[in-house]
């Protein structure tokens, strides 16, 4: 993730197209493709985005906001729950009760996240930088109102994109990468107990 951008270098139109083309090739449950993307490239639109999603006096430090606001492009990926409930009520799926309890996790969020990752990977591939970041929970309603986003569409976050400028790495990186031993479980979650473990 990159959190500071050259404000004088817009993202070329063909790169914007590639970001969105690749996003639309993300995998999706039932091939629903129930995502939608709001693309903010005009300065006034980006300004509005930051105004409605930045709670007064809260949240992110000023260095973060200053760097992120320099990004010439913001792409907001959304998941549409209704599109998935409709798709899975079709004959080949048959969940006609549209019961959300059938879903092990909300695939509309999963798929929008996959699409966001493809935006990130495409940006890096094209020599740009990008950062996926969350919207504050109390910023979602003002965001929807400001940009006319229907209630069924949930922004899963936003991706700032641009040519990178020197930035601060996230303080979270001090945590270090977790090792395979920490997170990979082979065969069973826990190693089988040995006779010694039984006393
Ligand atoms: C769901 C999600 C939410 C995130 N939210 C933020 C955020 O609000 N602000 C931010 O600066 N980075 C955010 N990040 C980026 C993470 O901080 C970053 O991926 C992590 O520190 C690892 O750094 P790397 O992606 O550069 O390897 C988010 C990432 C994910 C996947």
Descriptive report:
The structure is a single chain. It is built from seven helices and five strands. With 199 residues, it is α+β, with helices and mostly antiparallel strands. Helix 1 (13-23) packs antiparallel against helix 5 (107-125) and helix 2 runs antiparallel to helix 6 (140-147). The radius of gyration is 20 Å and the shape is globular. The N and C termini lie far apart (49 Å). Flavin mononucleotide binds next to strand 3.
Question: How is this fold's topology laid out?
Answer:
Elements: H1 13-23, E1 35-40, H2 43-53, H3 62-69, E2 73-80, H4 81-88, H5 107-125, E3 129-133, H6 140-147, E4 153-155, E5 158-162, H7 180-183
Antiparallel strand pairs: 1-2, 2-4, 2-5, 3-5
Helix pairs in contact: 1-5, 2-6
Bound molecules: flavin mononucleotide.
Flavin mononucleotide is lined by residues 1, 3, 131-134, 157, 170, 172-173.
Task: Give a short summary of the structure.
By secondary structure, the protein is an alpha+beta fold. The chain has helices at 13-23, 43-53, 62-69, 81-88, 107-125, 140-147, 180-183; strands at residues 35-40, 73-80, 129-133, 153-155, 158-162.
């Amino acid at each position: 993730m990159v959190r500071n951008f050259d404000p004088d270098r817009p993202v070329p139109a063909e790169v914007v197209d590639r970001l969105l083309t690749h996003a639309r090739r993300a995998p999706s449950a039932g091939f629903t493709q129930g995502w939608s993307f709001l693309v903010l490239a005009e300065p006034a639109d980006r300004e509005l985005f930051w105004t409605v999603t930045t709670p007064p006096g809260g949240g992110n430090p000023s260095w973060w906001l200053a760097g992120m606001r320099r990004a010439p492009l913001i792409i907001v990926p959304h998941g549409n729950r209704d599109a998935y409930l409709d798709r899975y009520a079709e004959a080949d799926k048959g969940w006609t009760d549209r019961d959300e309890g059938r879903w092990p996790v909300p695939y509309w969020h999963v798929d929008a996240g996959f699409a966001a990752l493809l935006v990130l990977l495409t940006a890096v591939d094209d020599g740009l930088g990008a950062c996926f970041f969350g919207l504050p929970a109390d910023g979602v309603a003002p965001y929807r109102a400001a940009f006319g986003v229907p209630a069924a569409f949930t922004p899963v976050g936003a991706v700032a994109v641009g040519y990178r400028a020197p930035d601060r790495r996230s303080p979270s990186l001090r945590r270090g990468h977790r090792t395979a031993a920490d997170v990979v479980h082979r065969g069973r979650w826990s190693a089988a107990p040995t006779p010694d473990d039984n006393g």
